Amino acid sequence: MSDTPGSASTLGRAIINKYPDIESKPLDGNKIELIVPPEKIRDIVSLIDEQVSDALPESLFGIDLTENKYELIYIFWSHANKMLLQLRVHLEGEKPEIESVCDIFPGLEWHERETHEMFGVNFKNHPDLRLLLLPDELEGKFPMRKSFVTDRSRMDETGLAQPKSRPESGGESS
Amino acid sequence: MSPDILDEASVIWFGPQHVSAHGWATKLTLVGDYIVECDPNAGYFHRSAEKCLEFRNFRQGSMILERICMMEAFLAEYPYIAAVEKIVDLEIPERAKIMRTIMLEFNRIHSLQFWWGQFAGELGLFAMLLWPWVDREYTLDAFEELTGSRHTVSYATPGGVKYDFTPKFHAKMEIALSRVKERMPVFDDMLAGSPTFRLRTEGVGHYTAKQALKWGLSGPNIKACGIPMDLRKDDPDPNLAYGMIDWEVPTTHNEEHPGECDAFDRLLQRFKEIETSLDIIDKLLPLLPEGPIIDPKARAKVNRLPEGEGYGRVEGTRGVTSVWLKTMEKAQTPWRAKIRGPCFASYYSLKHIVPGARFADFPAIFGSLDPYPGWWDR
Question: What is the ipTM for the molecules in this complex?
């Protein structure tokens, strides 16, 4: 399935012809990955919306690569073409930013909200960036970042009792 | 909408205490008994499953996923195992492939039996709440016979499955399946054949296929619009046996409004889903070959994974269920695990489906989407 209309490589080539600074990488089967610069994301997502009439916005999520480097992955699935499109966006900086695409695919609205609260990625022009899953009273920010501490040093915040420390030598006999 | 209408609007929290809210809360703005705005609120069950997965090795991870959705526990854990197998490039024995597929479909039947009762109960038909749940016990007995656990079966493991089918399990599965077959016409009569039930569900919660795709709906919620979108056919996992047999993706067509569906269509669609699952199990059972059920080298291979990315997907009872895994070199735990729950989209889409409906129709609308809070909260 390399050159038939509706195949992933055909669509990939059409996108690269229009936007030459995008790299593509074939995955197994009828799947393709496009590496998209952050400022081009709206162009590419609207192009997908035009070209693939039954695109299903399957997923959007962030990855923390440490040292203030982040990746965003957008996954689209087309049933008619049996095709999977994966967009990869590299973001950098303490406060990464990208344009929101939830007006093109409303289904990504909550995915963007979740990525915002979990990774601190700001989605510009998003209509509603309230917390989705996290409680308002959570101390510390961005739980899915690798720098977020999850060990016993934060036990106090949970309101649970501290585990008792074990006696050093088997206890006394009396 | 003119602002003076909203002056008289009242705001109601549907849940988390309401019986048919199952512990989640939706903020509804009402004018009279018409809903003008719906704001679904997630987060009541959030247990940070994705972060927990970063601290578990590749054989433990699937147990966390099972606890996200107890009703389809095996379907929920399977994408994780599929993603691990993609990264290591594992091919499992043929017997294990067929056994996995049978158990996935058996689990789907169990989940749909639960949904029947839940949906009928939400609409006030309490006899129908308990009947399918009694039948469900037979299915759970079979699970218990095979794995020792009634819900969280943890049946598959990277490289194969954990337990072989025994004659006793075959007998119990036969009882459970014949029970489903026997009672299907009764349930069909009680739900689809009941004039009251039709009045409550027909024309309620309309959306078109195009809208559903934009919102990210999948599974029975989109097949009810007539689109045969089904990962079992479109993109089956290489370690499952859906390709070995001939079967049809069920769809429902609304005759009055082609390309649309309402709550009643989604109910009919879920009846067809259970028939398809029964059909797949019936066709796969005679194909079960003798042989090993696990690749003996797999255990050593998944101790430390190479650097890579894997995307495991399965058609769950409620739609596309997937896990995206990223591993670093010689990883004992995933660097990042993203869980895509099908109900994340269906709960979100309430925001668009509900406005304009009457308050009494609200349980019918969200019940027909088969929501499960674990999937959006994770």
Answer: 0.87
